[in-house]
Task: inverse folding
């Protein structure tokens, strides 16, 4: 069983910071060609400054809500590496929702950013993967892999997170649907649903509300907060031949938080 991604070409969106950046760095370290994609040019260039001389790395700046940006992302990848083998949709936007405010457009905004961007990018990349497979002398066992980064919020109910939860639930259904649709083309589609990870945003929240850290740990059976590097390692598994018989699946990485029932039965 091989976890190698050596020589594969991967596009990773949301790669300026957080999970996307950790995955992109990890894939680069594991010998993949990596396109770091993000719409925040300043942050992307700042966090990737040390990679400027790498032959196996390219930076792409663009708002993937625009169809032209998706096309340009794919062109940048092909110009640099001639092909694409892996797409990781790690663009994640977060905002609170007021479920009773008719003027609150957060649900619409998050569906566009967390679902539609992943859908359009996946469709464009999948078409290229299919074309690559058709150009091979023999039909490959695997034409490509697509990995979506979701959240356990998709299955938990917190009204103020309604927009975020809905967009992630939709992303997971997209994963299952595209997993089936692309299976005849030897393209696998899976997702990783993450719990609380120690990111810049979470650090800021904990700094302002120290009790929040204890709340997370108490609600997590493994009694700690996860790291982006752990997501990166799971993404490598899903991009490698070790997961060759997996598609349409959502793997949960949350320290057991999503399986914990916080309402305990009284002791007798």
Result:
């Amino acid at each position: 069983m091989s976890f190698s991604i050596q020589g594969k070409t991967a596009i990773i969106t949301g790669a300026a910071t957080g999970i996307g950046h950790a995955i992109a760095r990890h894939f680069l370290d594991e010998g993949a060609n990596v396109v770091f994609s993000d719409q925040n040019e300043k942050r992307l260039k700042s966090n990737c400054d040390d990679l400027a001389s790498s032959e196996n790395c390219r930076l792409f700046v663009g708002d993937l809500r625009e169809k032209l940006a998706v096309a340009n992302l794919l062109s940048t990848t092909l110009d640099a590496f001639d092909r694409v083998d892996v797409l990781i949709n790690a663009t994640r936007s977060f905002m609170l929702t007021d479920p009773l405010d008719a003027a609150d457009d957060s649900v619409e905004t998050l569906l566009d950013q967390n679902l539609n961007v992943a859908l359009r990018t996946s469709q464009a990349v999948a078409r290229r993967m299919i074309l690559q497979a058709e150009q091979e002398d023999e039909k490959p066992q695997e034409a490509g892999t697509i990995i979506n980064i979701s959240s356990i919020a998709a299955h938990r109910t917190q009204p103020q997170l309604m927009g975020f939860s809905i967009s992630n639930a939709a992303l997971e259904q997209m994963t299952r649907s595209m997993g089936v649709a692309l299976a005849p083309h030897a393209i696998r589609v899976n997702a990783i649903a993450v719990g609380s990870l120690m990111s810049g945003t979470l650090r800021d929240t904990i700094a302002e509300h120290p009790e929040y850290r204890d709340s997370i740990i108490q609600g997590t059976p493994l009694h700690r907060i996860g790291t982006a590097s752990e997501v990166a390692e799971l993404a490598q598994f899903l991009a490698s031949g070790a997961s060759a018989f997996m598609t349409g699946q959502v793997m949960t990485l949350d320290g057991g938080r999503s399986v914990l029932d916080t309402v305990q039965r009284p002791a007798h």
